[in-house]
């Protein structure tokens, strides 16, 4: 087996059932250079320990996943969410500092769905903008980029009221590009008739915080959250999307983040190796730039 | 129980397990004035008989559902699809002529998904435009309006490569508005950040062939095709969407089309009555115009 692409980063969700130690170990063992972490397994061992484990792994840190969920109206739940987002910002900064050279302090934000009983999608979206306005000074102070992630419209009601990259960019536009960017995830935006022009715009505006790849295949899993696949196993045209991202000058790591029961049931080292193989076949041929290896 | 809204039309799919005779009977019995039919139950009795049954029912005919499915490249399958679409155009014209005064000769078109093994979404969309170009002269000659229906992006790969109303309008723009319009279905487009401006545009360009309502609720059904609900049972804001449609001057019938195993298992008369009640509560308050009753 060839060495994995030096720009590949394994998002920890791809091997969800591995604890942090295992995730770091198998990622490094597979020859992958970078990892994106999730808050829960980090908190399980504690931030300080997690940072130290990350340093020892020699891996670059690419993103911290994930925070957000701030569509609710003002009140204690909204305050708790903002406070928790501030904790996540600190976590992202700490982990990025602990990762190998080339690590990036990026916190992925998922907006959240419609509040219970509400039909006011427009209002929920405005509250996303408001929350980011509250968090931006903290992120700036910590040197963290908030990466607002549009999610596929099938999640618009219960998970994320931000459904297109264009919409994420419209929200980000109110803020400094070093502080608020967007997550460009192929699974969520591949269907969008404006996807290529939105990627071009995101690049022009300096907003591509992270590029993430996984594939779309039908029939969808019964739980549509778990319907993500290895790159190449579905119908997404990684050539045109990756070309568009690369054309903006994006030259950082690219995460593969897969939620899939079957992949989660796979031995995590094998899952990482398969991810690397899918990436090499479907994404690597379209990369213009490579990190120093 | 109050009389159903005079602008309500029952799309036959809502009571899928009823044959044509039953569908016509329960719709009329519930006091509903209009119906949209599906090709299969019409073909089951034969077009001439179906037309005669429709005339006898006294109901208006609103749409014929559905045709399209022409994303495949040139070849026998594409020729068969175009030929079948021509048959559907004739059916729509015949049924509209057989329905009560105020009937509309509208054929709903669903584009189709990516051809097997293809990742070329852009090409598939262009083939939709090409097919409509072939069919438009037949539709014009028959006095039928082709109502291209954007489907929710969760169906983009396997059912419909046209995912937004704006995209449908871009395709329709090549053709006479009397011949090619769009289906505006709340379930498919409610999440779109551009939905209100796209409806305004559709009205301005004379392209709202039919307005259809049903609701969105999570969790989605395991088969996402069957996840449609009675108006009012989910999270769609029928106020803003219906206001936008009405503001364009749309004053025709409004269909409720629901695919839902539980509703299909309901006695069809009761399902029609519940549909009428949901419509009265969620949609009627936002209607400016009423058909003569």
From TrEMBL, chains A, B:
Taking every annotated instance into account, which residue ranges of this chain make up the domain Xylose isomerase-like TIM barrel? 25-266
Gene3D superfamilies given in the database record: Divalent-metal-dependent TIM barrel enzymes
Enzyme Commission numbers on file: 5.3.99.-
**Which SUPFAM superfamilies does the entry link to?**
Xylose isomerase-like
Any keyword Isomerase? yes
According to the UniProt entry, its GO molecular function terms are: isomerase activity
- The kind of enzyme this is, by top-level EC class, is isomerase
Q: Which key words tag this protein in UniProt?
A: Carbohydrate metabolism, Isomerase
Name used for this protein in its record: Inosose isomerase
Gene coding for it: iolI
